[in-house]
Amino acid sequence: MDQSLFTYDIIAEDPKTHARAGVLHTPHGDVPTPIFMPVGTKANVKGIPTETVRDLGAKIVLANTYHLAMRPSADTIAELGGLHTFMNWHGPILTDSGGFQVFSHQDAVKLTDDGVRFIATDYDGSHVFWTPEDNMAIAQKLGSDICMQLDQCPGYPAERSFVARAVELSSMWAERCYAAHTRPDQALFGIVQGGMHLDLRLRSLKHLEECGDFPGYGIGGYSVGEDHETMFETLEPLVSEYMPRGKPRYLMGVGNPTTLVRAVAAGVDMFDCVLPTRTGRMGTAFSHEGRLNFKNARFAKDPGPVDEQCTCPVCTGGYSRSLIRHMVTQKEMLGGILLSMHNIYFLLDLMARAREAIIEGRYAEFRDEWMASEAAADY
Q1: How many CB atoms lie within 10 A of CB 170?
Q2: Lowest CB count within 10 Å: 50, 164, 222, 379, which one?
Q3: Contacts of 369 (CB under 8 A, 6+ apart)
Q4: Cβ(241)–Cβ(269) under 8 Å?
């Protein structure tokens, strides 16, 4: 199908790493890369008004196909004008397939070549069967700018045979998603699976390239239990040596700052994760001193901002570490909201500075300075 509304321009490549800066064009606006995408699982970035998300610098946000299909339903969202209108976000939106959430039901999941059957234990306990065609129908009703193929995401550790079967299923489903997807103002991305096995990753990528002209690729199946060094053993060669140069590469579900810095050096363009908002609600913050836990008593009488080097509305708005700690320990909801805002801004600003470094040809130095700093102690 014609997906000419979605093009990706590479505007700079770092001479010493595989990092690149680009622009992804979509019907609802351009997305500069590298970019972090805040996650609005149920049509909102949890606890943060849409205009605030925009003011923090977000260019594109995510929503979750599984959760929106369950409540309020894809039909309801379509009737109300589509996802952009429904969630009051008029820039680009990416929806995942919901596959990760489906498979998190574990024992309540049954897989076949045709699709996946599961019990919605986190909703009404209904029995649901999704084929790749069903999944595409939901995505097209939602009307996001980018949707993802239905895939199987194996956890870690897993037997090689189990991961190989997940690659086989995901590849078959990619073909069917590609055939079923007909909405020209929505891009369908394929997803590379394969766990920690580079040969399985390459098998998955090869099949995606053969079955259709996907305008971009997700990289799934990382940050599912493995340590970061194990992840990079296969992620770095996969991205830097084998993935198509002219299409965006989206590392799914990864969101701590140091991993973003390292992955950009490998050639990754797009990231998403619930980490900045989830950890914010738990009372922790990213910072240039590393990750900070505001339940710690050392912040009780600290008049300084969350991060002296940060220019977000929280750090420049007069909210002291002492006040943040008080709100966190007293379970005042504003504490989690402010830390979520700070964390989102921190990642958005980090990627903006990374982009600038790439354009100026100094990303290797940017990465090395980050890795040598206190900020790298973020997990």
Answers
A1: 28
A2: 379
A3: none
A4: no
Pair of tokens at residue 351? 């990627």
Domain locations in the chain?
Answer: 11-280+342-376
Do 174 and 152 contact (CB within 8 A), yes or no?
no
Structure tokens of 151?
């895939």
Fold observed for domain 11-280+342-376: TIM Barrel (3.20.20)
pTM for this one?
0.97
User: Annotated catalytic sites, by residue?
Assistant: 96, 272
Which amino acid, residue 309?
Q
**Euclidean distance between the first and final Cα of the chain, in Å?**
42
Residue type, position 137, single letter: A
Residues 6+ apart with CB under 8 A from 313: 55, 56, 341, 345
Note the helical H segments in the chain: 50-55, 65-70, 74-79, 83-86, 99-103, 132-142, 160-180, 198-211, 228-237, 257-266, 275-281, 321-329, 333-359, 363-371
Residue 174 tokens read as 């990619």
Cα separation of 5 and 13, whole Å? 24
User: Which of 55, 16, 52, 18 lies closest to 34, judged by CA?
Assistant: 18
Q: Average of pLDDT values for 292-315? A: 98
> pLDDT above 70 covers what percent of the chain?
100
Predicted pLDDT at 39: 98
